[in-house]
Each structure stands twice: as C-alpha cells, then as structure tokens.
Amino acid sequence: MSSSDSHSAPLKIVIVDDEEPARLRLKRFLEGEPGIEVAALCQDGEEAIEAVVNHRPDLLFLDIRMPGLDGFTVLRSLPAEFRPLTVFVTAFDEYAVRAFEAHAVDYLLKPFSKQRLGESLARVRALVAARKQGEMARQLDRLLQALPAPPEEGEKKEKAAYPQRLTVKDGPRIAVVPMEEIVCFLAEGNYIEVCCADGRKLLLRETMVSLEARLDPARFFRASRSALIHLAHLREIRTEGKSPSLLLLANGEKVTLTAPLEQLQERLQ
Fold first, then answer.
1. Which of 69, 183, 207, 233 makes an SS bond possible with 73, Cβ 3.0 to 4.6 Å?
2. In whole numbers, what is the pLDDT of the chain averaged over residues?
3. Which structural domain range is residue 168 located in?
4. What is the pLDDT of residues 194-220, one digit of tens each?
5. Is 219 inside any structural domain?
6. In Å, what is the CA distance from 221 to each residue of 18, 164, 186?
7. Nearby residues of 127 by Cβ (< 8 Å), 6 or more positions away
C-alpha cells in the first residue's frame, strides 16, 4: 500500500443484493482490500435508497434484478446529488447496455473473481482521484445538458434536479400531472393515491420512501408514514390539546399529522 493510500479517507461502500450469500461474499472480498469501509448491506431497493441517503457512500454495488424496486429504479429514485459512483452486479448479461447508459462505472457479471473485483475498484479509485482534479466536474456539466432547461432567472437552480411533472398510468392511458396540481400522496396498500387539485385520484405503484426521495423537499412534506402533502395546498392546521394535529388541504382532504408540528411550522416559514 502506498503512503497516499494509507492517509487518504477510506472508500465508503454500500452493497445491495437480494441474495444474502451474494452480499456476504462481496463483503468478504471487500474486507480483504485496503482503504475500504462497508457502510451498509441492503437486501432490497427501499433499504438501498435509505442507506444511500443516510451514509452518502462513495460507491454503490447494486444488483439489478430484485423484488420490488430494481437497480435502475433505485438510481432514478435518488436525487442527482445523492447518486454515488455505481457498479452494477448481476447474473444477467442482457442488462449491460442499460447499465452503462445509466452512467455505471463498471458491470460485474456473477460469479466474478476477486481479481475482477480488484479491477473494478481500481477504476473507481481512479475516478475518485479524477473528481478531485476536476474531471468529474466536466462530466457533471455533460450530464446537466441532458436535464430540462434551467429555471427562470431568480429561481433556485436546485429545482431543476426535481421532476416538474408526474406520469401515472391510468387505465389504457398515461396521465401527466404537473407537480403544482398535486395536493397530496396517500399510501393505499401496495399503491400510492395521487390526489389532484381538480378532484382526480390516480394510483401510483411506488413506495413512499422512493417517492419522497425524488420530490422537492421545499414543496412536499412527509406529514405521516402514509401521507405526503404539497405545502402550497395546506389551508389549515387544527390542534386540539394533546391529540395529533389535523391538516386541512385545498381539496378537502384531512391528514393526521404525526411528524413534529414544529418541523412543519419551520417548513412553512
């Protein structure tokens, strides 16, 4: 190991795979490498999103085919500033093209050897070093060119990182709903009910965790485990002693607030 490796910060890694033997095998391989910190082991897409947001890893080893959210959906669900360098790990080689279209650093086909893993880590370390030298900033500029046009002068630039409209399958058609027309999201079993200002209610097959991760926190607030509200459509907060507060929304919906009231009040200022 070089002196620069011994003094540099360890490479923080999150491993995501729905098969426990695969997770533990990769963790064992990584523990034999210098300058590595395995921050979390995740068995599905929801755990992966939470781990990335909480740990902010440098590198994500991400399985593609998993129950629920697949690897590509996990990446799409993360805001751009949370997405780490990603190495896809899968037993299916037909995903290779899509993996590199998703700007993957590498693609490991199971079963892979420790030598092949070492080659992948060397590529990651080279990219981390390049980032410090400014190369990653140029790559970011190229990626930003693919995003929607920047907001008008005076608006916050970070708004462009969040979707401005939502697509929801509605029978034989796909509804396109501007974010400003969405009053709230309510969990309904394995679905989320999208409540619109015009009275429409659409069903979205997604989890609250992944949905919240890709919404603008300046506009949407997690009022409870099963409810996300659009702050612009909040009309009244009713408080009665020690009982949970009740939120009255513009479309008539009533949502029980289980998040701290002080947190909501801060967001409204």
1. 69
2. 82
3. 162-268
4. 999 999 999 988 888 888 888 998 899
5. yes
6. 30, 16, 12
7. 85, 105, 135, 136
